[in-house]
Amino acid sequence: MEAHHTEAPAAAPTARPVVLLTGASSGIGRATAEELADLGYALVLAARRADDLRALALRLDASGGRVIAVPADVTDNASRRALVAAALAHFGRIDVLVNNAGVTVERGWWWDDPDPLRVLRVNLEAPIELTRLVLPAMRARGSGHIVNIGSVAGRAATNGLYSASKFGLRGFSLALRRELLGSGVTVSLVAPGFVRSEMTARARLPMPGPGVVARAVAAVLLRPRPETTVPGFYRPLVWLEQLFPALGDWMVQRLIWRRYDHVPRGPA
Ligand SMILES: NC(=O)c1ccc[n+]([C@@H]2O[C@H](COP(=O)([O-])OP(=O)(O)OC[C@H]3O[C@@H](n4cnc5c(N)ncnc54)[C@H](OP(=O)(O)O)[C@@H]3O)[C@@H](O)[C@H]2O)c1
User: Fold this and answer.
1) What is the Cα–Cα distance from 174 to 156, expressed in whole angstroms?
2) Which cellular component, as a GO term, is one annotated location (predicted)?
3) Which tens digits make up the pLDDT trace of 29-64?
4) Alpha carbon of 81 to those of 8, 19, 77, 131: distances in Å?
């Protein structure tokens, strides 16, 4: 794993805060792009699906100046570096990094998946590496904000690899915030419960749309908080699960595994 401080080349500076948002091509990322564009932020949108990304950027800003699409694979070091370089080339600086791109093992058990560690690469390694790329300039300027999209599955264990990534991302976010206290750079974790997106398309649960998370991201940008869980009704559930782990066992088995056709098995 390698990262270097990328110097800003000459670029037309903007007075607007510049947000680099990963996973912008669908779900929570797309909703966050819409929300932040409405609020007047300058945006660098990243994801692999170039056509969807470009169409979104064009819809949000027909001028092409304030919202740009930069197709990128966040698991690839060269792609990450090119993404940051493109953002700097266009806007001259990055004020906010939103690490939203994420995947899960969608079907079946993670141990049956041919490459389960991709979940760690996208959900945990990529946010850490992107942070390493943008942090030196933020620290030098004495301002900046890293927003990581965690999950309720990072508090209440559900799916081995997904929870490993989101517990890890929570630890990274909360620790990094402390490491940066006094530096002018702040860190927030936004932890959603189930919301409607491509990731949850197969889950048969009542879910709000991704706008609830987009609004939470916008809120922490205005008033930074170490951590916030949305929708709010998951907050007591997380504490209940921690106080009564057996209740968590029951909830996860009944409400999540079965809803995903993920029926517990006896000995193999
Ligand atoms: N939906 C929920 O209920 C829920 C709950 C808790 C947390 N979350 C978290 O919210 C975040 C967004 O998920 P979502 O629900 O909006 O899911 P989604 O609709 O599947 O969106 C995932 C996004 O991540 C991008 N992505 C995946 N792999 C990538 C890669 N290698 N490089 C670049 N981009 C990549 C996808 O874009 P491309 O395919 O175009 O690359 C897509 O834009 C994730 O971190 C997820 O873990 C979701």
Assistant:
1) 17
2) membrane
3) 999 999 999 999 999 999 999 999 999 999 999 998
4) 12, 16, 6, 11
Cβ(198) – ligand 1 distance below 6 Å: yes
Ordered by start, the domain boundaries in the chain are: 18-260
Q: How does DSSP classify residue 121?
A: I
Distance 196 CA to ligand 1 centre (A): 11
Digit-coded pLDDT (tens) for 139-163: 999 999 999 999 999 999 988 999 9
Amino acid sitting at position 171: G
How close is the Cα of 244 to the center of ligand 1, in Å?
A: 30
Give tens-digit pLDDT for 209-222.
999 999 999 999 99
How many angstroms is it from 268 CA to the middle of ligand 1? 32
User: What would the two tokens of residue 9 be?
Assistant: 């080349």
Would you state the structure tokens that stand for residue 141, as one six-digit string? 């300027």
Please give the single-letter amino acid code of residue 44.
V
Query: Could you tell me if the CB of 45 is within 6 A of ligand 1?
Result: no
Whether ligand 1 lies within 6 angstroms of the CB of 99 is answered as: no
**DSSP state letters, 90-119:** HHS--SEEEE-------SS-GGGSS-TTHH
- Tell me if residue 234 is catalytic: no
Structure tokens at 182: 């006094």
Nearest atom in ligand 1 to the alpha carbon of residue 118 is 31
Per-residue model confidence as pLDDT tens digits over 93-128: 999 999 999 999 877 889 999 999 999 999 999 999
Task: Kindly tell me the sign of the dihedral angle through the C-alpha atoms of 106, 201, 231, 53.
Answer: positive
Q: What does the block give as tokens for 56?
A: 């979104």
